[in-house]
Amino acid sequence: MTEFGYALSSEEHPPKDLVAHARAAEEAGFTFALISDHFHPWIDRQGHSPFVWSVLGAIAQATDRLVLGTGVTCPTIRTHPAIIAQAAATTAALMPDRFFLGLGTGENLNEHVVGQGWPSLEVRTEMLEEAVEVIRELWKGKLTNHRGRYFTVENARIYTLPERLPQIHLAAGGPKAAEQAAKIGDGLIGTGPEPELVKAYRDAGGDGPRIGQLTVCWAASEAEAKRTALEWWPTVAVHGEASQELPLPSHFEALTKSATEDQVAESVACGPDPEAHLAKIRAYLDAGFDRVYIHQVGPDQLGFLDFAKRELLPALEQSPVEARR
Fold first, then answer.
1. How sure is the predictor about 45, in pLDDT bands with cuts at 50, 70 and 90?
2. Do the beta carbons of residue 22 and residue 8 sit within 8 Å?
3. For the chain, which has fewer Cβ within 10 Å, the N-terminal or C-terminal residue?
4. Number of C-beta neighbours around residue 33 at 10 A
């Protein structure tokens, strides 16, 4: 069954607002949400990056039905996988059957802060696989020792566990990562409507949820939306490996200095016309994603959520077949 979710952008909003937005998204009719896990924002203008696990605890108490996942956590450098295992288990205990753990190989922007370097993608991929192994082993609730290539766990046991363990969904930027998601994860997370990503996941035996992130900017006019998108999220104009490799917000600001409103609007659905947003959603469904979560750029989250409640979600519910074409 196709589901539609909401993105909680930690880079753009303070923690109390993120909690309020999660509650408002639930009331608007979204069934799930993902919250970003950053140490730094992409650019200084965004202005925030609260500790995601504190925010998750607050959201757990502020919502009743909303399924929530990290989008995504890197369990390898900044935070040891044993700590992620404990944090995720506690969160899942706070919101039974409403939490999943989204994991990925991370970005230099967030991981370099502990001074442990920034490995190659090949190494980060190996680290992620071992981290998932560590997390799943600790979730058995038994005394655990692990001495692997990248991580050591010594006489550790997680005592607070949920009745049902959360699923682990892995972010993938290419076919090899999608194959890894099929191999060691319970679902796939992508950031673009790429059919080859879903195909690689399915061909490798993946049969879990396929979650795609869509970035939009609703506003009263297309012109206002374009201005807002460029101001708050110019990084959509950054392509290739730069988003994983640059270490500071100032580097992203320099890289996007010449970005234009039209360049940003190529990737971001801008304005009040629901059809522009629906067309972007259908692209994900056509690519094989069965869940799409929507990131509204900028401060006006409540305006977008009202738009979604009045126009966007009803259109998707009324024409489910058309939405999949």
1. very high
2. yes
3. N
4. 23
pLDDT tens per residue across span 174-192: 999 999 999 999 999 999 9
Confidence (pTM): 0.96
pLDDT in tens, 201-236: 999 999 999 999 999 999 999 999 999 999 999 999
C-alpha to C-alpha distance for 43 and 49, rounded to whole angstroms: 11
Alpha-carbon 48 to chain mean position: 16
Is residue 216 within 8 Å of residue 234, measured between CB atoms? no
The two three-digit tokens of residue 164, written as one number: 């049902």
Rounded CA separation 70/319 (Å): 29
Q: Which residues are catalytic?
A: 38, 107
Question: For all residues of the chain together, what is the average pLDDT?
Answer: 96
- Give the residues across from 8 on adjacent strands: 35
